[in-house]
Amino acid sequence: MRCTHGSLSTVAMRLGSACSIVAAMAAVPPLDAATISVDVVRSVETIDVRASTTVHADIATAWHVLTDYERFTEFIPDLLRSHVVARSGSKVTVEQSGFAVIWLLKMPVEVTFEIDENSPIGLHSRSVAGDLRSLTSRYALTPVPSGTRLDYLGHLAPGFVLFGRIERSVIEHNIARRFQALADEMERQGALARTHRDNGTR
What we know:
Layout lengths: L4 H23 L8 E7 L4 E9 L3 H8 L12 E10 L2 E12 L2 E14 L3 E9 L3 E11 L2 E11 L9 H34 L2
Antiparallel strand pairs: 1-2, 2-8, 3-4, 4-5, 5-6, 6-7, 7-8
């Protein structure tokens, strides 16, 4: 095999470019996971869940992530399908399927939600079909100096008799995982938006 001076120079340039790219990527610190709080209160028939966090993203970015239902499967764990089946003004119907997970156990879950959007400050949803007897929830977005505060309130009448006394743990675990994933995606999109904005001003 013959290597001319020109080909060696080309290889060196390509290696140098590759090293520069790797160095630039290494210089960018990874995003920290959003810090969330979750509180679960169970009564005889229902479970109430409250979750909150502050994300480093503006309210427009947070709203876009919150309502990008078709893309939920890309970042929410154990969600296999999320599909908008109807939309009329601020009313949206979304079908979702996936798993509720606790330890090594996975339980298939299918739910259809009717969602009432109130752009860009929040939304209300309720389950109208599927494996849960009743689920109503509210997401609220509030601008704060460091970004956007995200609050969740869920009122749930579960249908998983199998889980019995551990049902509270199942609900808390799965809602916390999904809420964390939603907040982390808002953080990621917020960082991308800031990068694009900074590059545009140079």
